[in-house]
């Protein structure tokens, strides 16, 4: 939403550009990030941490010819901006030229996404968050388990101005409630919701989902590691999308030959379609990137076929294409990133996914995943907070957590069913919209004691 | 600063806070990033603000702002008290803080060569020399080199009468070479994939001799492309310090954080298998050779300071003594629950975050006797694993799996051919109990990580680990198939 916060931030960005130009920049870009963030955290069924912050900063990209410098500061007064420009100029005076520097992007038009902002979230108070937390704790108390988690409400304002005429500004909100319930006899469950509008999050329902699972996972038993078909709940699927975005769906990863992506190559089953869409109201929208370029909807995987990667201005220039609006704040060695990945739903009712398992595992979520072989997207991690053995399409009972070492690309290829319902969740850097899925093969390589 | 600290504390107390503290933090950062000879990312950053933490009738509140005025101090102190009263609506056990004398004084990281005074041209040239030494090796696909420095000026005051001022300086640098052929991507880095990091000045960067190491590691990255896959099975392994420090971090440092033990990180990073009954029972964490200390006074460590962010003086806290679990990383709130005083491990990531129990310098102490080379010579058949590539551990810190950049075969006491894609896995206490050799002072080196994640909202911690090399028997090596 283009509110007064956004207008103020844009004015600040323009002042920063003016200081940069007076300090000798031939091109300049100012990114203002401002906001109010609050988070109420609970453990052992009580609030134990409860925080709020007000912050604003200016990130200045200062270019002289093909010499590029970056400086940032939390000072937003004119003296602070003048010093910021001088610091950046000093850096630009000594760095080497980037021979293929393509210049800052020009102006693009990004239509405001009104659905990105909720007044209720913006006005959420500590008392309001505490109400939600008490609802979660109440659900845990009723189930005889203990609640842990957090409830966050954020207002984020971004504004970008550059000397080539790019101007973008907007304010968005988001809220996230997550909880782990832990019960007697080793039971543990998880539930989460993220939304632009915090009032759409049913805290009691989130509490009940986690509490019920904590009850259901008591007295988990050991199963041997090995290959199993799996049903992954949305909380696990979001990790797959995040990791693939990090490892491969970036133009820089392709240009550096470290990506698994080859356009036109099949990397998933026909049931797998993934796009990045910063405008989709089902996610947590952000309609321009941190270089001020309007975000494009980018098909990444279409019916299993690799169709695209995301670009920022510099990677786009190298490939002779237009930026898709996926630049991150400078300096950025990681390259562009798909912040708003959305996986298409399938036609299998969520509760029917396990019906397709003769003998397999139902996994609630993953924990501490990390690439073992990045180019093959082989990842290791643990299951957590609800893993169940399924036989003949029915849950037999809870099992102890397992370690997996699995190619996420191979997993996409083995997707045999996709749920018709989806959840909006917070991913590594942005909002992700995902269904639960059934995958015909998943390699578990170890076990643990709980 | 006194005006601001007094104003915030007085306001908080007047509004009902039984305890309040304030930290004013100014952070200066600079970084240089080079990719294959291109000086792509040269940046400087400055951040300043303050955070007020209050305890009202046993309930916590915290608020922070980047606006450094007395009027904002009033507003933020009031907001923190309001938040604490909201916390009180879902409170079952009021927080109690262990006693400690008011903290007063100053501390400054010893720095021989101020990294912010070294000309930027020098820092770029030093890094370029290393990057070019790596990128000039035939077969290298791309290289990445990094230098970074951070300095924090931190003022702490509380309603107990504490007032401290600290200046902490950290520096880090690395060079890495990447060789890619088809689906095979091999990386070698020095001194570690995340960089060598220390508390100190540019003298540490010079001591690394990045350029001197860059060529050989680049050649090794290319050689790994055609090296055989690391075998699978039960092996004797020797961990180089460049891997062992992360093993300590994940499987000893994190599980000994007392807040995790009491569940306050359960919703994010998880809990710990090191429950208080194990402290009382003298749990055998490792073999007799394993002694681990959390030492906030260790020279060069990124967990070294004068006082933690609760005003508790820096100290060395034994965690494992001769294999027996003996202590935790703790805070003023958690330590009384095990009948102890705070070990001084509360650290916050900047002005806008609350302090959490964080590692200081969790160090595996060397054992007199054998150098790392002598341990290799003492090994008939095994693998020498170096430089972390991947890490993962379960939510109670038991089942871990690591990958390293390289494995060297050991036969007859000598390091031989390379293996690519090595991994190893185990259960924490079984692994540490299998240790039968720890290197002496000659391989003991201070390393650390600047990106230890914890907390909600997320915090990034700078922590140190001094370790030698060590040998472990009967470890599962080679996980997964590709």
Task: From the structure above, extract its key features.
heterodimer; A: alpha+beta; PmbA/TldD fold; 2 domains; six-stranded antiparallel beta sheet; 9 helices; 17 strands; B: 482 residues; eight-stranded mixed beta sheet; 10 helices
Description:
- The complex is a heterodimer of chains A (450) and B (482).
- Chain A contains 9 helices and 17 strands.
- By secondary structure, chain A is an alpha+beta fold.
- Chain A has 2 domains: 210 residues, PmbA/TldD fold; 228 residues, no CATH class.
- In chain A, helix 1 packs across helix 2 and helix 4 runs parallel beside helix 5.
- Chain A starts with a helix and ends with a strand.
- Chain B is α+β, with helices and mostly antiparallel strands.
- Chain B folds into 2 domains: 224 residues, PmbA/TldD superfamily (PmbA/TldD fold, 2-Layer Sandwich); 245 residues, no CATH class.
- Helices cover 22% and strands 39% of the residues of chain B.
- In chain B, a hairpin with a 4-residue loop joins strand 5 and strand 6.
- The radius of gyration of chain B is 23 Å and the shape is globular.
- At the A-B interface, strand 1, strand 2, strand 3, helix 2 and helix 4 of A face strand 1, strand 2, strand 3, helix 2 and helix 3 of B.
- Strand 3 of chain A pairs parallel with strand 2 of chain B, so a sheet runs across the interface.
């Amino acid at each position: 939403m283009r509110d007064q916060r956004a207008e103020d931030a844009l004015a600040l960005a323009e002042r920063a550009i003016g200081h940069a130009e007076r300090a000798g920049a031939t091109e300049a870009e100012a990114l203002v990030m401002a906001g109010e963030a609050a988070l109420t955290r609970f453990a052992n069924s009580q609030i134990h941490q409860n925080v709020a912050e007000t912050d604003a900063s200016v990130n200045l990209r200062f270019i002289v010819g093909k010499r590029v410098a970056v400086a940032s500061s939390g000072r937003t007064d004119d003296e602070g901006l003048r010093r910021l420009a001088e610091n950046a100029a000093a850096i630009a005076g000594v760095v080497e030229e980037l021979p293929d520097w393509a210049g800052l992007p020009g102006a693009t038009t990004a239509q405001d996404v009104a659905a990105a902002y909720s007044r209720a979230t913006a006005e959420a108070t500590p008392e309001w968050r505490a109400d939600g937390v008490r609802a979660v704790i109440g659900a845990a108390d009723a189930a005889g388990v203990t609640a842990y988690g957090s409830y966050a409400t954020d207002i984020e304002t971004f504004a970008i101005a550059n000397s080539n005429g790019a101007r973008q500004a907007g304010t968005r909100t988001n809220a996230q409630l997550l909880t782990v319930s832990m019960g007697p006899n080793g039971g543990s469950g998880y539930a989460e919701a993220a939304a632009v509008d915090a009032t759409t999050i049913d805290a009691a329902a989130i509490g009940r989902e986690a509490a019920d699972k904590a009850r259901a996972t008591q007295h988990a038993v050991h199963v041997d590691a090995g290959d199993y078909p799996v049903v992954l709940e949305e909380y696990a699927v979001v990790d797959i999308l995040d990791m693939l975005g990090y490892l491969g769906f970036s133009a820089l990863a392709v240009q550096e030959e470290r990506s698994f992506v080859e356009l036109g190559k099949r990397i998933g089953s026909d049931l797998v379609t993934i796009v990045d869409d910063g405008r989709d109201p089902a996610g947590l929208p952000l309609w321009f990137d941190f270089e001020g370029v309007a975000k494009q909807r980018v098909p990444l995987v279409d019916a299993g076929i690799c169709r695209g990667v995301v670009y920022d201005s510099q990677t786009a220039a190298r490939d002779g294409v237009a930026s898709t609006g996926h630049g991150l704040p400078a300096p950025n060695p990681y390259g562009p990133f798909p912040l708003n990945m959305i996986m298409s739903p399938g036609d299998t009712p969520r509760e029917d996914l396990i019906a397709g398992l003769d003998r397999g595992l139902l996994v609630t979520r993953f924990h501490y995943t990390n690439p073992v072989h990045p180019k093959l997207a082989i990842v290791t991690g643990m299951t957590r907070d609800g893993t169940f053995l399924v036989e003949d399409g029915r849950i037999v009972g809870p099992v102890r957590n397992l370690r997996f070492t699995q190619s996420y690309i191979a997993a996409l290829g083995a997707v045999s069913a996709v749920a018709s319902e989806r959840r909006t969740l917070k991913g590594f850097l942005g909002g992700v919209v995902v269904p639960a899925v059934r995958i015909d093969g998943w390699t578990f390589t170890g076990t643990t004691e709980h | 600063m006194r005006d601001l600290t007094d104003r915030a504390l007085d306001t908080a107390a007047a509004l009902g806070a039984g305890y309040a503290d304030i930290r004013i933090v100014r952070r200066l950062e600079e970084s240089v990033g080079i990719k294959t000879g291109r000086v792509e990312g040269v940046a400087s950053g400055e951040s300043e603000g303050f955070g007020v933490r209050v305890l009202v009738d046993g309930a916590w509140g915290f608020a922070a702002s980047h606006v450094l005025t007395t009027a904002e101090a009033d507003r933020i102190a009031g907001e923190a008290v309001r938040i604490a009263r909201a916390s009180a609506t879902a409170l079952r056990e009021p927080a109690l803080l262990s006693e400690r004398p008011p903290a007063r004084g100053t501390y400054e990281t010893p720095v021989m060569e101020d990294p912010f005074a070294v000309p930027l041209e020098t820092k770029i040239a030093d890094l370029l020399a290393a990057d070019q030494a790596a990128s000039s090796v035939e077969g290298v696909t791309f290289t990445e080199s990094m230098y970074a420095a951070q300095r924090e000026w931190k003022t702490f005051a509380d309603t107990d009468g504490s007032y401290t001022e600290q200046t902490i300086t950290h520096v880090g640098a690395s060079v890495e070479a990447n060789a890619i052929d088809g689906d095979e991507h091999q990386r070698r880095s020095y001194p570690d994939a995340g960089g060598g990091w220390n508390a100190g000045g540019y003298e540490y960067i010079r001591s690394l001799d990045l350029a001197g190491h860059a060529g050989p590691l680049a050649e090794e990255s290319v050689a790994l492309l055609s090296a055989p896959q690391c075998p699978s099975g039960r092996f004797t392994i020797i961990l180089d310090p460049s891997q062992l420090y992360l093993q300590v971090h994940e499987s000893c440092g994190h599980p000994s954080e007392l807040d995790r033990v009491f569940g306050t990180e359960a919703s994010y990073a998880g809990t710990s298998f090191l429950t208080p009954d194990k402290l009382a029972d003298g749990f055998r964490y490792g073999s007799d050779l394993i002694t681990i200390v959390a030492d906030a006074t260790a020279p060069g460590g990124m967990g070294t300071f004068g006082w933690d962010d609760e005003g508790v003086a820096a100290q060395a806290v034994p965690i494992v003594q001769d294999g027996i679990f003996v202590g935790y990383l703790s805070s003023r709130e958690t330590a009384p629950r095990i009948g102890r005083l705070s070990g001084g491990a509360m650290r916050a990531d900047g002005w806008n975050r609350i302090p959490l129990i964080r590692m200081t310098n969790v160090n595996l102490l060397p054992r007199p006797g054998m150098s790392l080379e002598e341990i290799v010579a003492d090994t008939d058949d095994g693998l020498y694993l170096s430089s972390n590539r991947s890490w993962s551990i379960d939510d109670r810190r038991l089942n871990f799996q690591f990958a390293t950049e390289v494995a060297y075969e050991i036969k007859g006491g000598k390091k031989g051919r390379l293996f690519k894609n090595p991994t190893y896995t185990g259960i924490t206490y079984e692994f540490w109990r299998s240790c039968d050799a720890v290197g002496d002072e000659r391989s003991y080196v201070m390393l650390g990580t600047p990106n230890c994640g914890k907390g909600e909202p997320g915090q990034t911690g700078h922590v140190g680990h001094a370790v030698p090399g060590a040998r472990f028997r009967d470890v599962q090596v080679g996980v997964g198939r590709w």
